[in-house]
């Protein structure tokens, strides 16, 4: 028995709530081919953030990471990380 068939009864009864992440290709390969399993999931497409959005996200996380790791992160390091990724 595969994982999908093990999960379907619990999902149908509302005993299991889950969030998953996969690629579109894997979704098509493993979820879409099983109509009963597909009915129990709601796909949410999340695109990659733009470089500008990534910089904004990193700036929002900067203080938390500086405190946790005991380091200073320059703005130029954030910009470089976003543009090089």
Shape category? elongated
Tally of individual domains: 2
Q: Mind summarizing the main beta sheet? A: none
Structural Rg: 19 Å
Counting DSSP E segments of at least 2 residues, the number of strands comes to 0
Helix content: 55-70%
Strand percent estimate: under 5%
Low-confidence stretches: none
Separation of the first and last Cα atoms: 40 Å
Q: Give helix and strand order, one letter per element, not per position.
A: HHHHH
Mean pLDDT: 94
What is the overall number of helices? 5
Category from helices, strands and their pairing: mainly alpha
Organism: human gut metagenome
Protein name: ATP-dependent chaperone protein ClpB
Domain ClpA/ClpB AAA lid: 50-85
Keywords: ATP-binding, Chaperone, Nucleotide-binding
What is the gist of this entry?
Residues 50-85 form the ClpA/ClpB AAA lid domain. This protein is mostly helical and 85 residues long.
Provide a descriptive summary of the structure in words.
With 85 residues, this protein is mainly α. It folds into 2 domains: 3-38, no CATH class; 51-84, no CATH class. The chain is 61% helix and 0% strand. The protein contains 5 helices and no strands. The protein has helices spanning 3-12, 24-32, 35-38, 51-69, 75-84. The model has no long low-confidence stretch (mean pLDDT 94).
């Amino acid at each position: 028995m595969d994982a999908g068939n093990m999960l379907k009864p619990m999902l149908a009864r509302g005993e299991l709530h889950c969030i998953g992440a996969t690629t579109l290709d894997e979704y098509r390969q493993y979820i879409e081919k099983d109509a009963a399993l597909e009915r129990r999931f709601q796909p949410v497409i999340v695109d990659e953030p733009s470089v500008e959005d990534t910089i904004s996200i990193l700036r929002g996380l900067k203080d938390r990471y500086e405190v946790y790791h005991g380091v200073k992160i320059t703005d130029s390091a954030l910009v470089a990380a976003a543009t090089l990724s």
